[in-house]
Write a structure and sequence with these properties.
This protein is mainly beta. It has one helix and four strands, in the order ββαββ. The radius of gyration is 25 Å and the shape is rod-shaped.
Length: about 80
């Protein structure tokens, strides 16, 4: 008997994972997919492995951004003889 097949969408790729895992977390582990602290999955990692065989991983990254606003326009002064 063969393990069920799952398609995991992660990092712009579709991985085919054969797994006897009971939960989404088990399937991801069998597929070598490591989740970061803020990443999310559909269905959630504690859900039973989906019958549809589809699992989607969304990577969530936070970054501190330091932006300096510059003038969005400039002023031009022209001398007019009138």
């Amino acid at each position: 008997k063969r393990a069920p097949v799952y398609t995991v969408s992660v990092d712009g790729k579709k991985l085919v994972v054969h797994s006897w895992g009971k939960t989404v977390a088990d399937v991801l582990k069998d597929g070598g997919v490591e989740l970061n602290e803020n990443d999310t999955t559909d269905p959630t990692t504690d859900s039973l492995a989906p019958i549809s065989g589809q699992i989607e991983v969304t990577r969530v990254n936070y970054a501190d951004v330091d932006e300096n606003e510059s003038d969005a326009y400039s002023t031009i002064y022209e001398i007019d003889s009138s």
